[in-house]
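quick one: adenosine-5'-[phenylalaninyl-phosphate] bound model?
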Amino acid sequence: MTILENAQKILEQINETKDNFQLALKSVKSKNDLESVRLMFLSKKGEIQRLFSVLGKLGPTDRPVVGAELNAFRAAAQSDFELVQQSLLTAEKIKDFDVTLPGRMPIVGSLHPLFQVLDEIKIIFTEMGFRVEQGPEIESDFYNFEALNIPEYHPSRDMQDTFYLPDGYVLRTHTSPVQIRTMENQKPPVRMIAPGKCFRKDTPDATHSPIFHQVEGLCVDKGVSFADLKGIVQAFAQKLFGQEMRVRFRPSFFPFTEPSAEYDFSCIFCKGNGCKVCKKTGWLEISGAGMVDPAVFGFVNYDPDVYSGYAFGMGVERIAMLKYGIHDIRIFYENDTRFLNQF
Ligand code: FA5
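yep, here:
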């Protein structure tokens, strides 16, 4: 037989072996079948190796051509073999799967209690006709202080211990700057609330945290009075806590309201008798409030002879503490899942 005839013959044998291999692989039903295919075709004494051993009989021109064909066949055969092996393993695993085993419970998260309360607050106020506004947490000195009638070097700046940032910026100490931003962009009447994060260099204790949340409220229109403020606060407190919740107003001072007040909700822990949380007063301080100072209207071009308004800034953590009977504000931020899972 000539060298050329030899090459032709080996190529035919390769094709024949390919067909036989595919047939054998298709009929595999078990691990044993698969092992027989491996032994017959892919092992050291198998068909493919036997074909390699006759390569030596070929001349230098044919050997690389047939060799390449044989290498490609071996690689393809190996990969087809592994595919069948994998599907057998998977089928076996499914067969071994114990459907009577108890399932693993997925860990389901829930909204943080603070945000649950915040959602309730938003619903109550939107139902009473207030829009929800937002402002930046990094605020300019102008919006956080100046436009709220708190000039530089004025002692009232010390009321809120501030985190100062470069270039005249601060971490906002309250949500009141959103009053200014809203009035700059809207003509009266205005009825808005602005929930958000605030930052102060306050030493953490049971009722103070350096990061906390407030909900600002602002209502400006013709003929708005302090009685409207008291009415809205009382309505809000009773919608959130029920009819038995009592509210008290105390005189206070804020540079951006005149007159100014603070209001407290009755302490639900001791029913007003005095305890550790309310510092024996029977009340928990919730908010600053007052009638918008005419000087503030000056910054936003509202005519104080035509319009009047009230504003308030409530502490959300304090409200959530009352709502859920929590004695220490710090627990909101500890990420303790034993606490969070209860909500
Ligand atoms: C203010 O922040 C004023 N901007 C509120 C205001 C708005 C007055 C509009 C008038 C008109 P004050 O510093 O009192 O006020 O804070 C308001 C409320 O935020 C407090 O009553 C309290 O509930 C909450 N609060 C203040 N500091 C903290 C703190 N460190 N941790 C938790 N809550 C706080």
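The chain has a mean pLDDT of 93.
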